[in-house]
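Supplementary Note 3. Input sequence used for the single-chain structure prediction.
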Amino acid sequence: MLLPSLAKAKSKAQGIACMNNTKQLGLAWLMYAGDNNDQLVPNQNGGTVDANASPQGSSFVGGYLDWTISQENTNTLYLTNERYARLAQYYGKTKNVYKCPADKFLSAAQRAKGWTERVRSVSMNFWVGDGTTRGSKDGYPGFIVYKKMSDMIKSPPVSVWVFVDEHPDTINDAGMYIDPTRMVWGDLPASYHNGACGFAFADGHSEIHRWLSPVTRKPVKYQDVWATYPLDASKDSRDYLWVKQVTGEAP
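The predicted structure, written as discrete structure tokens, is reproduced below.
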């Protein structure tokens, strides 16, 4: 009787800690825009870290996560060094703001190396912020790419998410892609907290959202998610439609 209660209490505590982390990230994101004439921080959209990145960094954070033993899975410099992470100066270069305490998932190869965790659980909304190369997201179908706070017109900041806990099998380049043109998950949100997930919104608030569909609450398989199970949300679209609603707006 006691063990389920303890597990539930632990999950709740982890959810609160996770929500505090994303709230700090959200405030750092807002401060960046305030210091840069309303411009939103660039949002990485592919590739591994550029060793020749500018001193200002190429994106809000660096590093490409996978299930291999690549050093980008554990290198905290990509979170705390301004050469790679433009937001680093705004959260005191504290690496833990990017990590959900419930995320301890590692592949067999990573455990064999003696690792205890990967460095990041959090990704940013693909549609919030330009790509690492200016204009690289222009022409993507579906949503507006928000490049300034003032671009949020039809959907106010309180209803646009910026940061999320992403599923360990799909987290990679730190940009979580929601495809508005098909009823299919491009990337999948996590469900660490008893089938729930943390979000930070553009107005600065954070919340935990509970998933309704088993399509969303997928177990971790330590593989490329597309190779192991379908992400078609058309048979039970409740979660997908909620996320789509708070992701962005059509042109």
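The longest strand covers residues 196-201. The radius of gyration is 17 Å.
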